[in-house]
Fold these 2 entries.
Entry 1:
Amino acid sequence: MEHSGSGGSPVTLKTIASELGVSVTTVARALKDGYKVGPETVRKVRETADRLGYVRNLEGAKLRTGKTLVAMAFLDFAEEEEIGDSGAVGILNGFHKCLAATDYAVRVVPAPRDGSAIERIRDVVRGRLADGVILDLTELQDARVRYLLEADFPFVTYGRTELFSEHAWFDIDNEFAAWQSTDALLRDGCRRIAMIDGDPRYTYVRQRLRGYERALSEHGVKADPALHHHSVLAADVARAAVGPLLERGADGFVCSNELTFLGARAVSGTGSAMMSSGSASPCARAPVSADMWRPRCMPRISRMSPPGRLWRNCC
């Protein structure tokens, strides 16, 4: 039973088939992808389905196929609420656009940062809670990826690993993004560039570090570990980190995303913080489409070009 028509009777594939004098198989194919059905028949079937008020019964489809029609995404979300996480929203929009023409729904849960991450994945696989998963916070030797490969369970990672077994992934060019931002600051005259980023156990942070250090090396500047701050990516955390970095002589900041950029800028933009540090006018760039500013003079805002998208589909 899919839907009730105007007379109260259920509208099924058989109802549409009887209305048009075609087989149930023809109706099913026409409503799905038109396989082996002529364009005119597809049009008539779909128009009749709309007129009669047919709605596909997904619960029935789940029973017939044994699928959940759910893709579960384990994503990293900022815990602070003062700004919001535009990066996560963009990723979610992309997921929904990709699945818009399918019967699949995306279920999003926060990606655990502790030892429970692998157990959460095992629960999904053992309980068949989804037909596939999307993983964030990817590590070089990611235990979740190893488990899913061994379980032969469909998945894709946001970020890359260094495992020997290939798997599907999508990513941005983090190394180029950090290089681009650091290079721009160096060309603007900064020499003590601080980096505010995430935990180095994650692949994307390692990639950004490589890009940051490569840009410094190309300009003959030695990287100073005292100018690195690695922690949770949040505006309040970045805001607290800026003062100590300024005291260590930072004259520029490379921020990992909009959250850290805005948090760092809130402190660096205050005259008291600047004067007490005794540093030159600092500027900052965030690798992914963020801004640069000079707080002691008329602000100059410029957008960084987003880095290229990368992906591998091993399916």
Entry 2:
Amino acid sequence: MLDLHHLEQLDDLFHSMGGGKRMFSRLPACEGIQLRTVVALPEADGQQRRRSIQIGNLSRQFAYVRMRSHRLLCPLFRAQSDEFWGYITNGGTEGNIYGLYLGRELYPNGVTYFSRDTHYSVSKGVHLLGLEHCVVRSESNGEMSYEDLAQQATRARHRPAVVVANIGTTMKEGKDDARRVRAVLRDIGINDVCVHSDAALCGPYAPLNPKPVFDFA
């Protein structure tokens, strides 16, 4: 249950977002959405407004929300308090493309691997970024075939691997085991590995699983 302090922060955020509506184009279907119908906020007179954080020419409090989100989510995924950073993307597509970009910057000579059940934004991302890539077979449940991953990666065993692991595929909710991905690649001699987990679908409740298929530990 949110306390008054958190409700005031949400009120500040929605007020700031409302002021920026004139400066953004959006899908017509989103035009009539009233955020206050989603979260009931207090309407106290003289409410103290938190000073907005300036990002470019726009007044936003998303930087504050981002920091609070990190503090909430990172411990759930066993990330060390001094070893995480990031930002809130506009959606899963941007998150996947940025994850691929980070993999490319970390391993410019790497090969990117992802399964056939992976979201189409990854195929878009590898073309936008000019990444050499390999599509791995999927099992009937949507999970990556680790046997096929090993066979495909063996052909480039002397190069780093950038792997997109699905934490819930779009159609089947298939979940790739990030630990097993690393173990498979290690067994064939690939130690330089970057795993990007696409957790847009099942990531929010993954920490509730007694044995999550991915974390930052």
